[in-house]
Sequence to fold (412 residues):
Amino acid sequence: MHHFEYRDGKLFAEEVSVTSLAEDYGTPLYIYSAATFRRHFEAFDSAFDGLDHLTCYSVKANSNLSVLKMLGEMGAGMDVVSGGELFRALKAGIDPAKIVYSGVGKRDSEIREALTAGILMFNVESMAELVKINEVAGDMGKTACISIRINPDVDPQTHPYISTGMKKNKFGLDIEHSLEAYKLALELENIEPVGMDCHIGSQLTSIDPFLEALDKLLNFHSKITEMGVNVKYLDLGGGLGIPYDEEEPPHPTEFGKALAEKLSALPLKVILEPGRVIAGNSGVMITEVVYTKSNPTKNFLIVDAGMNDLVRPSLYGSFHRIGEVEQQGRAAKEYDVVGPICESGDFLARDRKLPEVEAGERLVVYSAGAYGFTMASNYNSRPRACELLVDGDTVIVARKRETYDSLIENEL
Ligand SMILES: *Cc1c(COP(=O)(O)O)cnc(C)c1O
Fold:
């Protein structure tokens, strides 16, 4: 469910006309709906009401400060994967005691920043990282709370680039090495193991892989408890999918119920790290058709948003629903919707049936709220788009459009 709807054939973001936003702020343009963000967060968070839990929104899905602040005000913690994301979360006023830090390549400086802030815990992804965190914490005279990210070797049945919990992936430690890591953690002077962690992938459309991973973790839990680890937190990561097209991902309540059944007897606080399921359908991208062009095999809509603005179709072959901002009622035609970037991989959609569209008209690309702007780049020296947050009839410029000057500001 989202709050981007047609009124008399014209698209609205909550109470605001999208055409007027495109006229005022230009295209390409990201528009986020505050009501949708709130609704998704509430629906997710309340699905785990039966459990002692903390929802740590995954900052990398959409890291705009206005978004982080809004979610923080609703009680969200954050899952960060870099010093930059930690910086953003702190700027947005998130309580450090609600921040967990994941990622395979944490540098000394980033570990130091997290210890200075006083985050809840590090999700540790290798032995070397564990040793490093101990060293940095020792230098600072601090104790670092950690969990080991366990790679349970479960197939999440999603795109290979967003599968993270299989043996061949770079993430976490397999079960045997995790056991060794906890042994080491108990010995290291400046480390306190407080949790267990896993994150098996993204855009999952069934809860079965989550439950398969959970069973392996619970089995492992009894082993490390015997070893003397006092496990307080069970971090199950993110990964719940959303409908981009015809997918029918499980509702969070289904996941919440299944978890409550398996965990009722254990004194564990569950941490969840949803990203896409909160942000994905809370945002759209608006783009204008610059030219139309046809050859004997294809009709092209050449639009002003490229793979630098929204890379998911190019990177993962992802599907994003596309529609007109103002419905003209013309007959359908098959199009490749392509950007201006000098790459044949620069497309938003291929072989897509859309009502016939003319140059100067605008299109809406749905489900662009997660991994949209955060993956944007300046490739082809294109200033990054403007981000707006609409709340009822209020429009907040969440990030202003970059200028040509922003392109060169760090160059000497
Ligand atoms: C990306 C990521 C998430 C969020 O994944 P979604 O599929 O967007 O929910 C959560 N935890 C970790 C460690 C991640 O890397």
Q: What stands out?
A: Residues 27 and 287 are 5 Å apart (CA to CA). The chain has two domains: 4-32+280-408, 34-278.
